[in-house]
Amino acid sequence: MADRAAPNKPADPHQGPAASAARELAQLQQQAEETRALLARLQFDVAQAQGHLGSLQAAQLLEANEQLVLAMLRSQAEAETVAMDIAQRELTQELRLERQRLEAENRQIQESSRLKREFLSNMSHELRTPLNAVIGFADLLMSGSVPAGSSKHGEFVGHIASSGRHLLQLINEILDLSKVEAGKLAFFPEPVDLPQLVGEVTGALGGLASQGGLVIGTEIDASLTGIVLDPTRLKQVLFNYLSNAIKFTPDGGRVTVRARAEGRSFIRIEVEDTGIGIDAADQSRLFVEFQQLDSGLNKRHQGTGLGLALTRRLVQAQGGSVGVRSTPGVGSVFHLLLKRDAGSSTAAVATGLRRCLVIQDDLADQARISGAITETGFQVDSALTGEQAVVHARNQPYDAVVLDLVLPDRSGLEVLSAIRSHGVSRESPVLAVTIGAHPTATFAIADVLAKPIRTEEIVLALSRLDGAGPSGAKVMVIDDDPVALELMEATLSGMGASAVSFRDGRQALREIEQQRPDAIILDLMMPGVDGFAVLHALRQMPAWRATPVFIWTSMLLTDDEYARLARSARAILNKGGGALETLLDDLRAWRPAVASVLMGIDP
Q: Which of 235, 265, 408 is nearest to 342 (CA)?
């Protein structure tokens, strides 16, 4: 969220102008008391001297001393009055300044509250719009009023798909902004072909631009080589800039992407449009969270106001900067500066050994698992944290991964998602998941599949099955969500596989002999019998213990859900399950993953 100024410290009662005046007044009062004491001593001395002086001389001396002391007292009284007046004025000024400060803070709090309310209102609108489209078009298709195979049917399906993608983008932006604020968003620099990357982004937005008759041009300096950046985050930033430019450029306009060197160490990328432009007074608000220039219920353009704020955060987190120059009615130029080389990526040399990455934060468990896997013929690399694991997987192709679900810096499933987004190990299967249960429980699986469904991921996973791959395979799907079951059934059917679905793990286990599946797709988080319990039960059934099981789960489990899984794992350990030996049995009979063959690694 927006950066907050450090709170003002409370005023020190022993400092400030009023306190200084009070100290001076106290000093004057002390001097007055000393003067009175002096007068009393003089009177005593004069009385003692009367025996030696004439009465007239003694009276004159006493009167002179009294006049002197009275003058001093009057002067001190006047000084006291002046000091009190000064102290009062300064105290009043100090109170006025304090009141002004509190009023400014109150206005700031009220403005922050207003902006957050406006943001929530906008976010509610942005989420409801695609949700309404999904529900509305889905209801129309379900009603049967739109014949299957008609042009309208395909059009409505397209609307549902695009609205779903829009929802996912909104949610990802919110999560990314939260991570980057917390310092938990990792960056994975690697060599980047800038013309190709820019071409991919402009190509993805080409359809949107053509709807308004816009032309997208590129001007990439051919000398820009040796660029090492996080390609995914750079695409995200460019996508935000370009989509904004397209959104605010009238029909028939032009959007241009430029890239050039900025000194020896930086590159400068600009996105220029011939759009509506931005007033100078508004430009400072462009990259601020919760703020939109075109806000309110009657706003003309969709958007939550997070895109540019997230862009600024992403660029600054990589040591760069963003900016804009704009003329109303002429257009705008948004730019970013990034280091030319944000890191190095070294390609690993493939070997003839099967290689496994063990991601485990407990040193004792890591040594135990790594040593046991080494004995099965794998070369093992180890990682204690999610960040270390992602760096390993970015540079080294692995045949398999053993994944701890709970890591100190981020969840294991988040790490897996990062591995499958970057580097040469994006297709490596997860052959076991572990979770701390004192000792660590280990569950052998065939791979982890992410929700929502990605068809290519399922095709790759099922292609590792013995036989002809997914075509003709019978897959048992176990998930308590009926919508998820229906989606998976449709996806598998499109691959030529048949699906038999169960919403309850107990029922699936009871019917496994009758159904005789070639593989199982299993949700981890289910009420009653969860995924770990089903895995444990399968390993107790000799005929089915070797059946490939693919864990299918959201990559964003909550802390409570991880705690539930840990409790389940502890219960299974107490029953003698969750042992490392099950994994080792599977590894001894395991054949190299398809991913290794695709990467040219000899088994």
A: 265
